[in-house]
């Protein structure tokens, strides 16, 4: 299992457009990717679950990847967070 922590920089937090792109992007990995924060946890591939977490600017999230391609999955997901959130 691989993971990283990230503090949300976007003014509106994790919102619909980038969350939708994230959900679509993580489906290409065989690894399970999970986002935890604000006392909740969600499968990164489920848009409504991610949106329901209520992650706002300044909150820290932990993203984990577990599976066969976890190294690639976590590296590319971390890059996505830095570029979009």
TrEMBL record:
Localisation: Cytoplasm
One GO-annotated biological process of the protein: phosphoenolpyruvate-dependent sugar phosphotransferase system
Chief location category: cytoplasm
Keyword terms, alphabetized: Cytoplasm, Phosphotransferase system
Keyword Ion transport attached: no
Limits of the HPr domain: 1-85
InterPro entries: HPr (IPR050399), HPr-like (IPR000032), HPr-like_sf (IPR035895)
Any one cellular-component term (Gene Ontology): cytoplasm
Name of the protein in question: HPr family phosphocarrier protein
Organism: Candidatus Fusicatenibacter merdavium
């Amino acid at each position: 299992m691989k993971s990283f922590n990230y503090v949300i920089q976007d003014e509106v937090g994790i919102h619909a457009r980038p969350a939708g792109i994230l959900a679509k992007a993580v489906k290409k990995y065989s690894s399970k990717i999970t986002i935890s924060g604000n006392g909740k946890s969600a499968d990164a591939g489920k848009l409504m679950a991610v949106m329901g977490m209520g992650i706002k600017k300044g909150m820290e999230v932990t993203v984990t990847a577990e599976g066969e391609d976890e190294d690639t999955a976590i590296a590319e997901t971390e890059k996505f967070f830095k570029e979009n959130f």
